[in-house]
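Researcher: Next entry in the queue.
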Amino acid sequence: MILHDWGEVPYGDAMGRMRGIHQQAVEGGDNHLIFCSHPDIFTVGTDDKNQWGVPTVRSDRGGAITCHSPGQLVAYFCFQAKIPARFYTKVLEAYSRFFEEWLPAVTYDKKRPGFYIENRKIASLGFRYSSGVSLHGVSLNVDVDLALHNRVNPCGLEGIHATSLAAEGTEVAMEAVKTALQTQVSEVFCDPLQA
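Model: Structure for this entry, 195 residues:
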C-alpha cells in the first residue's frame, strides 16, 4: 500500500489529483491510500435532492450530501477492487477496528451507510469503481465545527446529526488518527483482494 498525505487541499484540486492516482493504480496494480482534509465545502453525490439550502459542489461518488471541513480526516482509496463488495467489507473492517480502539460506542449502520453513535453520525462513506479500482472514500470527523456540519442533515437523513471524536470525549491528535487508520487498513488489506 502506498500512502499519500496531502494535508489540506481544496476539494476540486483533490479530485483531479485523486483521478491521477487512480490511473496509477489501474496501470500499476498497487493500492493507494490518500489522507487529506478540505476547506469548508458541501459535496453531493448521486443521491442529490437539490434541496439542501447551502451551496454545494457535485461529486461522482455515491451518497447524498457530505460536509467537508478542517478537522475532518478524508481517506481516499484508490485500491484494487475487482469485487467491490469484498473491498467495501474490508474498508468497514478497518474502520470498525479503529473505533473499537478509540470509541467503542460507534457502530456501522448498513441501512444508512455510515458510522454512528445512536443518532449521531461520525463518519460517512461514498465510493465508486472504475477499471477494477475504487475511487473516493471515508470522511471521519476528528474535531470539526459541528455548527457548520449540522447546517444540513448528514447524507440527508432526517433526525441524524453530525458528531466528532472530540465532541464524544475522545481527544486525539490528527496525526495519531492517521497512524492508527494506516495500521488498520494495512492489516485488513494485507492479503491481496481476490480477482
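Model: DSSP finds four helices and eleven strands in the chain.
Researcher: Noted, moving on.
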